[in-house]
Amino acid sequence: MPDSVNLEAKLSLFSEHWTPKILAAYNGNDVMVAKLKGEYHWHQHPDTDDFFLVLKGRLTIRLRDGDVHLKAGELFVVPRGVEHQPVAEEECHILLIEPRGTPNSGDPATAAVKLPI
């Protein structure tokens, strides 16, 4: 029987920002955690929505037509093709769910390498 995954314990294993870590696979999706701090660049995902669940801290998702402000326990899904910019003024911990192989930057050439943790 597989073990459960403790999100807090997994997040304690790394300190890098903007580098999603794969925790599990789910119906062809990667379930990941990441630590964010500062601004990520504007980008979009032409083939998939972008799921953000804040576990700790606060996250702003900038959209061209307004900002979405999230705190721990809140989630937001950026629809496919919508340009967005995640911003965390202080360190923020998030859970992400994306189809396996989706580049976090929207571009395989600039995407972080996602590794299991």
Short description:
By secondary structure, the protein is mostly beta strands. It contains one helix and eight strands, in the order αββββββββ.
3D architecture notes:
By secondary structure, the chain is mostly beta strands. Helix content is 4%, strand content 50%. Strands 1, 2, 3, 4, 5, 6, 7 and 8 form an 8-stranded mixed β-sheet that branches. A hairpin with a 2-residue loop joins strand 4 (58-63) and strand 5 (66-71).
Keywords:
single chain; 117 residues; mainly beta; 8-stranded mixed beta sheet; 4% helix; 50% strand
Roughly what fraction of the amino acids lie in strands? over 45%
The number of E-state strands comes to: 8
| Helix-and-strand structural type | mainly beta
Shape: globular
pLDDT average, as an integer? 92
Distance between the termini: 19 Å
Number of helices: 1
What percentage of residues falls in helices of 4 or more residues? under 10%
Largest sheet: 8 strands, mixed
Rg is 13 Å
Which sequence of SSEs, written as H and E, runs from N to C?
HEEEEEEEE
Give the low-confidence spans: none
Topology:
Layout: H1 7-11, E1 21-26, E2 29-39, E3 50-56, E4 58-63, E5 66-71, E6 75-78, E7 84-99, E8 115-116
